[in-house]
Q: What sequence folds into this?
């Protein structure tokens, strides 16, 4: 059914008005789009902080070299307390590529972070084969044995193994020493006894129950 002319005339007028202004509307929309794009590109990039990370997977006991490190950008407040220059330090645990190199991954006092009751103490077990049975995280009792008397005394109980550094030079007798270095966490009251036993006696261990 054809609509009366009095009803269609306003519709036709509105259509003509829209068509007449379509170029202007298109120009306005294009200008808005360009302005939005310019604002987005002019907006400053989010703030970041540089963090020292591993450039590749690194094994436990490795000595960190310049080629082992890279820099990654982290958002402020989310970056861990990585060391700015860990070159020359020994890894106490494996580090994955891209992982921040923090002090808890390195042989040193940071190994006892969160355990103020412990002190990181390096000891040399004379039997390298025995030391190779250990893993980081094991809890052991350290015993000082006297080969002459045949007796043995416990000098520290339930000490955690914190690190097993690679000890290639001493393993081949490069400096006259034998055995294997092990870093343990000893109580402050046990440090003197452990150090004395490590120099005077045959130091061995037993897994704690």
A:
């Amino acid at each position: 059914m054809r609509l009366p002319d009095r009803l269609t005339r306003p519709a036709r007028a509105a259509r003509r008005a829209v068509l007449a202004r379509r170029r202007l509307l298109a120009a306005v929309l294009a200008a808005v789009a360009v302005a939005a794009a310019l604002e987005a590109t002019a907006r400053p990039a989010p703030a970041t902080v540089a963090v020292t990370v591993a450039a590749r997977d690194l094994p436990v006991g490795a000595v960190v070299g310049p080629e082992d490190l890279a820099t990654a950008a982290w958002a402020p407040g989310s970056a861990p307390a990585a060391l700015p220059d860990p070159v020359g330090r020994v890894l106490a645990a494996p580090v994955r590529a891209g992982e921040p190199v923090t002090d808890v991954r390195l042989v040193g006092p940071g190994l006892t972070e969160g355990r103020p009751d412990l002190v990181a103490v390096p000891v040399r077990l004379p039997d390298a084969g025995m030391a190779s049975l250990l893993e980081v995280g094991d809890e052991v009792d350290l015993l000082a044995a006297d080969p002459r008397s045949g007796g043995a005394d416990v000098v520290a109980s339930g000490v955690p193994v914190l690190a097993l550094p690679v000890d290639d030079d001493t393993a081949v007798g490069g400096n006259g020493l034998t055995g294997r270095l092990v870093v343990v966490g000893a109580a402050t009251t046990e440090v003197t006894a452990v150090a004395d036993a490590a120099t005077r006696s045959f130091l061995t261990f037993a897994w704690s129950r």
Notes: Strands lie at 49-54, 69-74, 118-125, 139-145, 152-163, 180-187, 202-207. Helices lie at 5-20, 22-42, 128-131, 168-171, 191-200. Residues 36 and 42 are 10 Å apart (CA to CA).
